[in-house]
Amino acid sequence: MSAKACPEPAEHSGHQRFLSAVFYAGSSFLITVVNKTVLTGFRFPSYMCLGIGQMITTLVVLYAAKLSKTVQFQDFDRSIFLKIFPLPLLYVGNHITGLASTKKLSLPMFTVLRKFTILMTMILEVYILRKTFPKRLVYSVVTIVLGAMVAASSDLAFDVEGYTFILLNDAFTAASNVYTKKNLGTDGLGKYGVLFYNALIIIVPTLLASAFTGDLHKAAAFEDWVEATFIVCFLMSCFMGFVLMYSIVLCSYYNSALTTTVVGAVKNVAVAYIGIFVGGDYLFSWTNFLGLSICMSGGLAYSYLTFNTKSSTRISEAPELKIHITEDSTVTD
């Protein structure tokens, strides 16, 4: 069947789309630094418990906001499970693999390998949301992925477990972004309902998994709980987990799932550049630096074509790349 166009809502102004993207990029940058500090700097042993702390913060903040009537979303009933599925499963997979890969990889290589999320998101948007993309946007995405491949080819600190986690994280992130975009239009949920019920549904299974694997015990026995600096960083990570999830939903609401993914990629390249000079875990090579620069070029081109008003007008008139998806080796129109 042919992928059909799925236009973005016309009521969202360029100003709203751009600011939501900047908010997401800033939130994503801050939580990457804070998580790296907690998991690597302080050697906190449980990335799963850190994720649980972020989920609890999300529930507390949104429930308090609902009680004070600051935000509104549907009260819980049995229909919630059908409305929000499969987001909770994707969310927990994204959360756990993301924190695990942050712990296993250096910041620069973490950000490089995250670029493959973009290609996965584009494919899923075609298949699930039935979208088509202007050729210039496709070329910019290909440039980003090519740069990532060049940069990764020079990795001098290859870690099989870390690479496995990051590629799984790419797949979960892509699917989560696309289904978030799809579920935002569900009656009764909205931006805040998607966030709240995601966390509510998965927190109990995650707690049980943490207890079963021994992660909860390791976290409780961690010796730095008496250190004020660690506690501050841990609480910052919990709060930023909520802010990040809200920024992703907001960016997906005003933009496409692919745009949300590309914004994250551009931010990640900026983090990689910073990691060259600070952090101490980056092994410099000219090949890696060239790959990062190619990634940044593709990301900036995508951002310009997406957020520039005049370019956006031209893009809407440009030829679209028709992507056909085959089922049972047969192509139907």
Automatic annotation (TrEMBL):
Q: What is this protein called?
A: UDP-N-acetylglucosamine/UDP-glucose/GDP-mannose transporter-like
Q: According to Swiss-Prot or TrEMBL, what is its membrane topology? A: Multi-pass membrane protein
- Sugar phosphate transporter domain spans which residues? 21-303
Top-level taxonomic group: Eukaryota
User: Transmembrane region positions?
Assistant: 21-38, 44-68, 80-100, 112-130, 137-157, 163-180, 192-213, 225-250, 257-278, 284-305
Q: Which GO terms describe its cellular component?
A: membrane
Q: Which PANTHER family match?
A: SOLUTE CARRIER FAMILY 35
User: Corresponding gene?
Assistant: slc35d2
**Which Pfam families does this one have?**
TPT (PF03151)
- Supply the source organism for this entry: Sparus aurata (Gilthead sea bream)
What subcellular locations does the record give?
A: Membrane
UniProt main location, coarse = membrane
| UniProt keyword annotations, A-Z | Membrane, Transmembrane, Transmembrane helix
